[in-house]
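Hey, resending since the last one bounced:
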Amino acid sequence: MSQNDLETRLDELETRLAFQDDVINTLSEQVARQEMDIRELWEAKRLLHKQLKDVSPSNIKSEQDETPPPHY
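The structure tokens again:
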């Protein structure tokens, strides 16, 4: 290989590496944003679940509170 061919290949590799670094950074930022969104959604779900429990308590009695059926 000639010196010119090696320089061309090196330039192409450096260009690819720079592009890959940019893509990796972009993807990393996106994953970080999605992680924050997921955490916010889980917290909102938890709060909604708590509010729902507070507003409408369950109509199902525990086994200890249930009266036995008449055939017992």
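The chain has a mean pLDDT of 90.

Sorry for the duplicate.
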